[in-house]
């Protein structure tokens, strides 16, 4: 018997803390960082057909916008310009429920490849 992936029933961006609050139909709510969503983007650009690249320098990244995709996913547009990942409910559920383990794997890979989470340049943009 296969277990179906819970459906997302609510998504709320906490822009100040750079967190995305995701609620599933099983009443579980998770907070996941924009940085984690960006470095684990399901886009072909990041995933490289099963050989994911190491995404670095995204500690300060935030979400600029989100667009629903049918009843199964959300397109997340990040403020660094990345906008090609479709986060299905299954992908979001996996990232939310396994975030501690996935994050430790990411940090280990970052250390091994001498990468950095820090932004390359400080982005302080003001709109007039």
UniProtKB/TrEMBL annotation:
Coiled-coil regions, chain positions: none
Any Pfam family hit: GBBH-like_N
Gene Ontology MF annotations: metal ion binding
Cross-referenced InterPro entries: GBBH-like_N (IPR010376), GBBH-like_N_sf (IPR038492)
Keywords noted in UniProt: Iron, Metal-binding
UniProt cross-references to Gene3D superfamilies, sorted A to Z: 3.30.2020.30
Domain of life, per lineage: Bacteria
Domain Gamma-butyrobetaine hydroxylase-like N-terminal as annotated: residue spans: 11-93
Xref: PANTHER family: OS02G0197800 PROTEIN (PTHR35303:SF5)
Official protein name in the record: DUF971 domain-containing protein
Originating organism: Shewanella livingstonensis
Organism taxonomic ancestry: Bacteria, Pseudomonadati, Pseudomonadota, Gammaproteobacteria, Alteromonadales
């Amino acid at each position: 018997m296969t277990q179906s992936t819970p459906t997302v029933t609510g998504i709320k961006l906490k822009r100040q803390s750079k967190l995305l609050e995701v609620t599933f139909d099983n009443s579980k709510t998770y907070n996941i960082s924009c940085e984690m969503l960006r470095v684990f983007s399901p886009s072909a650009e990041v995933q490289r057909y099963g050989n994911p690249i190491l995404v670095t320098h995204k500690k300060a990244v935030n979400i600029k916008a989100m667009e629903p995709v049918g009843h199964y996913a959300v397109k997340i547009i990040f403020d660094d310009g990345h906008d090609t990942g479709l986060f299905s409910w299954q992908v979001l559920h996996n990232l939310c429920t396994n975030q501690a383990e996935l994050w430790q794997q990411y940090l280990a890979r970052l250390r091994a490849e001498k990468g950095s989470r820090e932004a390359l340049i400080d982005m302080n943009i003001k709109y007039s």
